[in-house]
Specification:
- 40% of the residues lie in helices and 17% in strands.
- By secondary structure, it is an alpha/beta fold.
- It has a 6-stranded parallel β-sheet with strand order 3-2-1-4-5-6, sandwiched between helices. It has a 6-stranded mixed β-sheet with strand order 7-8-9-10-12-11.
- α2 runs parallel beside α5, α2 packs antiparallel against α6 and α5 packs antiparallel against α6.
Length: 341
């Protein structure tokens, strides 16, 4: 992955200005990559003498609570005044792990009010939609945490990475690649993992903290979703699940409990595409995953006002669950007629 040297120098110059107020933003329903990249980048900026605040629109999953530095992350939904004040006073706004301000929900209105701050994008999603003063947009990167690592390496050298940064960067690299089983697994990625490991981080413990720290309710919800809610289309090559708010309450749902459910149908040998529909108060969140040539980024943008990556994308639906499922089933058939699934 080749970072633009002129952009590196512009970023270096921006960071070199003394004692600036900086905000790091990430997307709604923040995951390990969003939180990990934000915390690691904040540590680097604070070492340069800057006042840094990390902000996310809503709460991160409970199984990330153990991460060093996560307690300092401001949640806009629970602390709107604090978040708004930090954004209003910011000299520089870093946007990490999202490509459109729409991914910030209500926080996007707060950002729009600050027209003077420099804006920097650090992201690995396709087709950014906003103007930025400096852009590091690399869809070929497996995670934003990997992209942040490459920036740290380019600006200060790999030896600058501390154990606390290595820990949170590893979380993002691990979770966004399905524990290093998806695409974009390059020699560069494994070289970065060697650097992170050399700081002394406990990799088995990190894995256990993320993947083996769920609640009983989550385990029972997963069983229910697979056994009762997984439906098959097109001779078992497409699957989808749906969960209503009532169903999730039945299993004591917490933020993050449905994470990874959409991946499970792809463990079936002939499966090509998987979807899950999660009901929220005002909309239904659509998550899509695929194998090989099936482009769920195209599917999400065409049918659900979304996007993401070739094999992992998402969107939203503003109609009922029944209407959303009917739209999905019709869309799958249309996609199939075009030879796309």
């Amino acid at each position: 992955m080749n970072l633009s040297q002129p952009d590196i120098e512009r970023l270096r110059e921006l960071i070199a200005a003394p004692a600036q107020r900086m905000v790091i933003l990430s997307h709604t329903n923040p995951d390990g990559d969003a939180v990990g990249s934000s915390i690691a980048w904040a540590e680097a900026l604070r070492r340069e003498g800057h006042d840094v605040v990390c902000i996310v629109p809503n709460k991160y999953p409970y199984y990330l609570d153990w991460m060093t530095g996560i307690g300092d992350v401001v949640i806009h939904r629970t602390e709107p005044d604090r978040a708004a004040a930090a954004v209003a006073e910011a000299d520089v706004i870093f946007c990490l792990d999202f490509h459109s301000l729409s991914r910030l929900d209500q926080l996007s209105e707060v950002i729009a009010a600050n027209t003077s701050a420099k804006r920097v994008l650090i992201d690995h999603h396709l087709n950014p939609t906003e103007p930025f003063d400096i852009m590091f947009s690399h869809p070929e990167a497996s995670s934003t945490c990997f992209l942040v690592y490459k920036l740290l390496e380019a600006l200060w050298g790999a030896e600058c990475v501390t154990a606390s940064q290595a820990e949170v960067l590893y979380v993002g690299m691990m979770t966004d690649t399905g524990n290093f089983s998806f695409s974009s697994l390059t020699p560069e990625l494994y070289q970065s993992l060697a650097v992170l490991s050399a700081t002394g981080i406990n990799i088995p413990q990190i894995y256990n903290n993320v993947y083996n720290s769920f609640t009983e309710g989550r385990a029972r919800l997963f069983g229910y979703a697979i056994n009762r809610k997984m439906k098959m289309l097109r001779k078992g090559t497409v699957a989808y699940m749906s969960l209503t708010e009532e169903e999730m309450r039945r299993f004591w749902f917490q933020q993050g409990d449905s994470e990874g459910f959409v991946n499970y149908p792809l463990s079936i040998k002939k499966m090509r595409m998987s979807a899950i529909f999660i009901e929220h108060k005002d909309f239904i969140r659509v998550s899509l995953r695929s194998r090989g040539a099936v482009d769920v980024n195209l599917f999400a943008s065409r049918y659900f006002e979304g996007g993401g990556h070739h094999n992992a994308a998402g969107g939203k639906s503003y109609v009922s669950m029944a209407e959303t499922i009917a739209r999905f089933e019709a869309a799958v058939e249309e996609f199939a007629r075009e030879g796309l699934v």
